[in-house]
Amino acid sequence: xxxxxxxxxxxxxxxxxxxxxxxxxxxxxxxxxxxxxxxxxxxxxxxxxxxxxxxxxxxxxxxxxxxxxxxxxxxxxxxxxxxxxxxxxxxxxxxxxxxxxxxxxxxxxxxxxxxxxxxxxxxxxxxxxxxxxxxxxxxxxxxxxxxxxxxxxxxxxxxxxx
Length: 162
Prior knowledge:
Strand 1 and strand 2 (64-67) form a beta hairpin. This protein has helices spanning 5-18, 28-35, 39-51, 76-83, 111-126, 137-161; strands spanning 55-58, 64-67. It has one domain (5-161): Winged helix-like DNA-binding domain superfamily/Winged helix DNA-binding domain (Arc Repressor Mutant, subunit A, Orthogonal Bundle). By secondary structure, it is mainly alpha-helical. A two-stranded antiparallel sheet has the order 1-2. The chain is globular and about 60 Å long.
């Protein structure tokens, strides 16, 4: 899985907002400056996130951006779906052939592999909330390993039983 620049910028902007105290907001300029990205890039992702209901914006001198819901209720899968420009339903993400669509629509030897990879990524991203990413890199790494541990021990036990 490749993370696009837009997805990374969006996640980084959301993390800035997730670290705010109750009632606090950041302006577009503050977010862009803190993340070292242009206001145009920050504005584009915040517009998408606002349109999707993940952030809210307030105009005026005391205005700015805030999360629309608590960070603990926002899952990474939801964020990526909003920011993924190239998201296409189906097993073929891109079709480079000369025809209008893939010729393997009825019986495809790789369809189950591709579908399973997409489902595994979706499950992994759905298990992580924005709040879990607000700590230091070391703390986030610990949280991610704790999320993955039950799956590893379950699959290891299943392998041992065979």
